[in-house]
Amino acid sequence: MTQSALRIDGLSHTFGSRQALDNVSLTVPAGTFTALLGLNGAGKTTLFSLVTRLYDSTSGTIEVFGFDVRRESPAALSRLGIVFQARTLDLDLSVRQSLLYHAALHGIGRRQARLRMHSVLEKFAIADRIDDKVRNLSGGQMRRLEIARALIHDPALLLLDEPTVGLDVEARESLIKEVRRLASEEGNGILWATHLLEEIHMTDRLIVLHKGRVLAQGTVSEVLLQADAADVQTAFRNLINASQTPSLGQEAAE
Amino acid sequence: MKPRERPYALSLPGYAICFFGIVWREALRFFSQKGRFLSALVRPLVWLFIFAAGLRTVLGVSIIPPYETYVLYEVYVTPGLVAMIQLFNGLQSSLSMVYDREVGAMRILLVSPYPRWFLLIAKLIAGVLVSILQVYAFLVVAYLWEVEPPLIGYLTLLPVLVLTGFMLGAMGLLLSSLFRQLENFASVMNFVIFPMFFASSALYPLWRIQESSPLLYEICRFNPFTYVVEAIRFALYGQFDWTSLTIIAGVAAVFLILSLFAYNPSKGLIARHGGPATAG
Considering the entire predicted model, what is its pTM? Predict the structure, then answer.
């Protein structure tokens, strides 16, 4: 049986009168690269905020490796690494200091953190910048540092919210390749939120989120089949069109 | 797929590591931002060198406790300026955490598996320690400017600064959760810092205020900042003003409880407002 790294069931959330998420259910199996595809405003960032408990969901459950984020939040959060869409780095700290701080937030002492630090920095090819100030890194290196930082406590689930925003093509490709490798070689469950169709491979799992609702999920080929399409772009368009027709929309939501 | 056991439990040493990590980061940021330190120091010094010197001849301050002799106006305003340093620092560290360039520092903090109350209190204490460094740096310069409290005062001041800093930091934390739209520090200056500072005993003794405006006097008496100033004033002369200290402790507790409430994801104001996260 494949264990679910992340399991969300019946999750809804509103901001005032705006329904940001509507009865969202999804799973990210452990060891898979799952892309969360949606346009801007689809609810991806809200979903991430709810998983990290920046605010609570109005209804529904979120489990990380079977631990409910609300009731067992220490156990859930300790298994979770996250890269937010907006940069969250201290520009005045060095790479080393940023990682030590983050390790401390997870209760990891310096000796252990140093060991982990080298392996994650190697993985993301920024080991040679360890004593540089974050301010002096390039955009791509900052993103890599954020991912390395999110991995410092060895989380089994990694969430990334549009991590390639603002990166050039080359930096984007190498970043996504490295993250895919985390899933295939290290066994991390990855949830990769994006609005870029070209970031999705045929071997990935895919969740299509639109206006706060999950329109389809499964392996890419399953989604293509469901949407009756030959490629992801057509599938995405078909699913969105179908959701805007009331009767079909109902069907897609179920 | 590799099996995952819990990598570590929330052990007591873990709490200590987390706490010192938060304090360490705050100190690192403080020392790496020379501008922040300088402006924290220059602000009260401008008041001391220019404002107080200018008003020295206009405002005589008669002998009131804890002063045993007639004091210069510079000496009178120094505790108020110490309180101002902590007021600025308390608001700045909390608000910047959420709104300034470091948008997201709060999110990173809250991703920690440790309980939220613990993280927020650790963050608060870290800010207080930084404010205490600023205060002593200011007092050194003030000493050269002939503001010379007894040496014991520097010692008795320390525990009082911890308490006052905590109260002002908790206030900042509460404000940071309340005002989502508070985009810049200028509005905090107008709506919080200036009113609190001016309607207190920082610049003039309360009896003088009472002579000119009984209403303002009442406002000052209900302004917790007045008690912060007075507690610091007495401590600087080796005395503990227990009334003020009790009031400060009470106000600090209220602010803290409210801000913990506000940052509680299920009940808090963040949930209602949509939170600072949506700004990103």
Answer: 0.86
